[in-house]
Amino acid sequence: MFGIQTLEEFGKKLESFRFAVLRHTLPNEELRSSHWDLLLEQPSVRSDRLITFEVPVPPEEWGTATIARQLSDHRNIYLDYEGPVSGNRGTVKRVLDGSIQWQSNSQDSMVLAIQFASSPSFATSNEHFRGLLKLRKLADESSDARWELKLEVS
């Protein structure tokens, strides 16, 4: 699923890819809560699809490990899209974006060097904000693909 299979693909992990964080506001919070979508371009054959995680807390709280739920891969149009989601599934608004470089990528762990396009609200300086985004798949009996997510800033 996330493994790099060829030497050509291995070289791609050193390239920069894009990411975005969208605030996904849902129309009916009784069925499912509004959340943040983390969207990651990936070094794979299916580069038109984004690895996607639903995160219940805002990015400024990602410094403390939090649980994210992996969703089905999203279309790459969501890196730039803001507005209503089809099927009365709410609206999305981009709150962060920038570039990532894959440091490691396996079935149960991902580490990405991250650079924000502009300083996020939780940055401590006006310089470009950087860090490491770490994801670790949790051993889980349920059908949900749950991951521990943590952002370590530098």
Low-confidence stretches: 1-7
Question: How many DSSP E strands?
Answer: 9
What order do the strands of the largest sheet run in, or round the barrel if closed? 1-2-3-4-9-8-7-6
- Shape type: globular
State the helicity in percent bands: under 10%
Describe the main β-sheet briefly. 8 strands, antiparallel, barrel
Gyration radius (Cα, Å) is: 15 Å
Distance linking N and C termini: 30 Å
Beta-strand content estimate? over 45%
Task: Count up the helices.
Answer: 1
Task: Name its key features.
single chain; 154 residues; mainly beta; eight-stranded antiparallel β-barrel; 9 strands; 4% helix; globular
Can you offer a commentary on this structure?
With 154 residues, the chain is mainly beta. 4% of the residues lie in helices and 47% in strands. It has one helix and nine strands, in the order αβββββββββ. The chain has an eight-stranded antiparallel β-barrel. Strand 2 and strand 3 form a beta hairpin. The longest helix has 6 residues. The radius of gyration is 15 Å and the shape is globular. The N terminus is likely disordered.
Task: State the gist of this model.
By secondary structure, the protein is mostly beta strands. It has one helix at residues 7-12; strands spanning 17-25, 35-40, 49-55, 66-75, 83-84, 91-105, 109-116, 130-137, 146-153. Mean pLDDT is 84; it is low at 1-7.
